[in-house]
């Protein structure tokens, strides 16, 4: 700590040390070593920071022995965590940074230490990443400078120095993939980045820079629940996306969709985020031919039924995206009966008109009628069972059967994707049959309740009449006894 | 009552006492008739009797690598007997859209026919749309009999 204070004091005292006065630089330039050559281009050198500001010692002394004496505060080459501490001597001090005309945030070390790189350590003595791991040591330039290893066009290479090295990564996290760069180069972001577009997303755009957290950390920008807002930072900004010619309403649509509501409002981790359909490092819109496969990773039965349906060929011929044509993409709403049929809001009517496609029109109309009748029967059965239950009747068995009706209705929604009226009808009829049984049981329970109530009423009246008669009879006996006296 | 002889006084007191008994009995009778009638007419606050445990059957009748649906009140519970012979029970209601799940030998998993949701044999949702694991029930074997009860 005292050494760092000495370095800081040195830094303050000689913060505008000219290169001509810097004996360290003079000497090292004479030797022709790499650090001194690089340092001449370093942003720190340009702001008047000398070798001694990081390495300690006295840069004014020509005598090497004295200049590099420990008594003169000479530190030498900082090792391990000391490297980042030396950098933080200035970078964590807002006042100091202001003196050098920098507006960089002063919490980088704090962020680094709380990041996955700041926490991981193999030796237990030093953490996995120091400032120089990404920024370099002697040739540090602004992040906006194309020569910077953390410039948007270079950062991918910088990160993959470690992250694409399977041997190295095994030391820290053997289960972490090392093919991110390969995937990234196939993505829209990666392709544009390779062509020199520095606006597209690179590693830091999604993962952060100093504060990178594990994807399993709930605070991580790439934690499943946070991914949509991370992508939306760029993709929802019409200003930022100007020139890319793609919509900027995806997040707005997604957040209202059945997937968005499940993920963002119900914290349902099984619901898809942006990367579930687009990929993460290889992010790109799924092609027309792969949409059903992407959706089919979750909606497997629907995808299988569709692939073996007559619609598959028709869609392929017209180059229509399979699931998206009927369900849309970002704003997918919950599937209800209204999607089916020939009414204006039904998706079937987009293609099947009475004149142009009478067969499809008739089938769509019939399917809608069937599913509506099942829904109606289920509703009636449910109401009857609820009413009977409210009246105190035992309807456990009927309630159990009602589940089968619900299941048949949901399965019919899946079966729609076969576009086979017969198969669809079979599923619906199974549900209708069970609904009819449940309705009968519900009606019977309600009739039974009414019968019992009337019976109870009659019994109560009879018992009451008997009791009153008995009372009057006793009264009469009493009266007779009094008269007899 | 103006009579003053002792016998009549006893009779009058006796009659008053009987009158009180009879009137009280009548009131109690009316109450005992009306209360159950009114209670019967008013719907019960609890819609269903809470089931806490059900008997499934004999352990020897449950083969290994099988699953069966057990009625637990009006709700289904799936009882699994693993290949190793362990017994596990979970709510058979899929956490996605309330369909009834089933055991699939070929998958070695619990499966929902509605949207292809899958759960492992610990009830964890492993693929498809289910958002949560299945609720676990307790399986107790007493002698030869197998019981499933709520996991408290």
What is the count of β-strands of chain A?
A: 0
Average of pLDDT of chain B = 85
Helix segment tally of chain B: 1
Roughly how much helix do the residues of chain A carry, as a percent range?
55-70%
H/I helix tally of chain A: 27
List the uncertain runs of chain B: none
Question: Can you summarize the main beta sheet of chain A?
Answer: none
CATH fold type of the largest domain in chain B: Rieske Iron-sulfur Protein
The outline of chain B comes out as: elongated
Give me some keywords for this one.
heterodimer, A: about 475 residues, mainly alpha, about 0% strand, elongated, B: about 150 residues, alpha+beta, Rieske Iron-sulfur Protein, 2 domains, 6-stranded antiparallel sheet, 4-stranded antiparallel sheet, 1 helix, about 25% helix
Question: How would you sum up this structure in a few lines?
Answer:
The complex is a heterodimer of chains A (485) and B (152). Chain A is mainly α and 485 residues long.
Q: Mind explaining what this structure looks like?
A:
The complex is a heterodimer of chains A (485) and B (152). Among the domains of chain A are: 140 residues, no CATH class; 85 residues. Helices cover 58% and strands 0% of the residues of chain A. In chain A, α14 packs across α15. Chain A is elongated, with a radius of gyration of 39 Å. With 152 residues, chain B is α+β, with helices and mostly antiparallel strands. Chain B folds into 2 domains: 42 residues; 98 residues, Rieske [2Fe-2S] iron-sulphur domain (Rieske Iron-sulfur Protein), CATH 2.102.10.10. Helices cover 24% and strands 34% of the residues of chain B. In chain B, the strands form 2 sheets. In chain B, strands 1-10-9-4-3-2 form a 6-stranded antiparallel β-sheet, with no helix packed on it. A 4-stranded antiparallel β-sheet of chain B has the order 5-6-7-8, with no helix packed on it. Chain B is elongated and about 95 Å long. Chains A and B meet through α22, α26 and α27 of A and α1 of B.
């Amino acid at each position: 700590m005292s050494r760092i204070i000495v370095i800081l004091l040195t830094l303050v005292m000689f913060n505008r040390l000219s290169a001509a006065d810097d004996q360290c630089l003079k000497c090292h330039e004479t030797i022709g070593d790499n650090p001194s050559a690089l340092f001449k281009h370093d942003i720190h050198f340009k702001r008047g920071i000398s070798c001694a500001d990081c390495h300690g010692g006295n840069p004014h002394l020509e005598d090497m022995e004295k200049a590099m004496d420990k008594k003169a505060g000479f530190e030498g080459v900082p090792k391990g965590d000391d490297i980042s501490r030396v950098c933080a001597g200035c970078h964590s001090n807002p006042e100091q940074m202001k003196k050098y005309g920098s507006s960089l945030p002063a919490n980088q070390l704090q962020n680094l230490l709380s990041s996955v790189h700041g926490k991981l350590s193999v030796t237990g003595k030093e953490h996995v990443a120091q400032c120089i791991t990404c920024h370099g040591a002697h040739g540090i330039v602004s992040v906006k400078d194309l020569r910077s290893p953390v410039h948007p066009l270079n950062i991918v290479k910088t990160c993959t120095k470690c992250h694409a090295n399977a041997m190295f990564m095994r030391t820290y996290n053997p289960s972490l993939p090392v093919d991110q760069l390969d995937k990234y180069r196939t993505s829209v972001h990666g392709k544009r980045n390779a062509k020199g577009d520095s606006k597209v997303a690179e590693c830091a755009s999604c993962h952060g820079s100093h504060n990178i957290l594990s994807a399993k950390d709930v605070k991580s920008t790439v934690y499943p629940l946070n991914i949509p807002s991370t992508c939306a930072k760029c993709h929802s900004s019409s200003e930022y996306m100007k020139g890319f010619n793609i919509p900027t309403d995806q997040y707005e649509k997604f957040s209202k969709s059945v997937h968005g509501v499940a993920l963002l409002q119900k914290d349902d981790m099984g619901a898809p985020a942006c990367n579930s359909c687009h990929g993460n490092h290889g992010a790109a819109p799924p092609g027309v031919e792969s949409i059903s496969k992407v959706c089919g990773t979750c909606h497997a039965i629907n995808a299988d039924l569709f692939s073996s349906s007559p619609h598959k060929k028709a869609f392929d011929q017209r180059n229509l995206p399979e699931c998206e044509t009927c369900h849309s993409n970002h704003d997918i709403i919950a599937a209800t009966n209204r999607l089916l049929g020939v009414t204006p809001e039904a998706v079937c009517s987009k293609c099947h008109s009475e004149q142009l496609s009478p067969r499809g029109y008739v089938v769509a109309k019939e399917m809608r009628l069937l599913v509506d009748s099942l829904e109606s029967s289920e509703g009636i059965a449910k109401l009857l069972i609820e009413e009977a239950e409210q009246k105190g009747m035992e309807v456990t068995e009927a309630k159990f059967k009602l589940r089968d009706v619900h299941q048949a209705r949901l399965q019919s929604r899946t079966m729609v994707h076969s576009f086979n009226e017969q198969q669809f009808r079979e599923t619906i009829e199974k549900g209708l049959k069970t609904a009819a049984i449940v309705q009968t049981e519900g009606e019977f329970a309600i009739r039974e309740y009414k019968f019992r109530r009337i019976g109870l009423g009659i019994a109560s009246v009879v018992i009451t009449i008997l009791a009153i008669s008995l009372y009057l009879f006793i009264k009469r006996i009493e009266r007779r006894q009094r008269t007899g006296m | 009552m103006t009579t003053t002889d002792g016998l009549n006084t006893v009779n009058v007191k006796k009659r008053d006492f009987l009158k009180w008994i009879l009137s009280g009995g009548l009131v109690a009778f009316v109450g005992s008739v009306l209360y159950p009638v009114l209670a019967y007419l008013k719907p019960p606050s609890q819609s269903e009797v809470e089931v806490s445990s059900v008997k499934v059957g004999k352990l020897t009748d449950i083969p290994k690598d099988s699953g069966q649906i057990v009625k637990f009140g009006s709700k289904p519970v799936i009882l699994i007997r693993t290949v190793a012979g362990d017994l596990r029970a979970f709510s058979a209601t899929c956490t996605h859209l309330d369909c009834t799940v089933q055991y699939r030998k070929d998958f070695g998993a619990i499966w929902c026919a509605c949207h292809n949701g899958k759960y492992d044999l610990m009830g964890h949702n492993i693929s498809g749309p289910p958002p949560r694991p299945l609720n676990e029930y307790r399986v107790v074997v007493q002698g030869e009999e197998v019981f499933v009860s709520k996991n408290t």
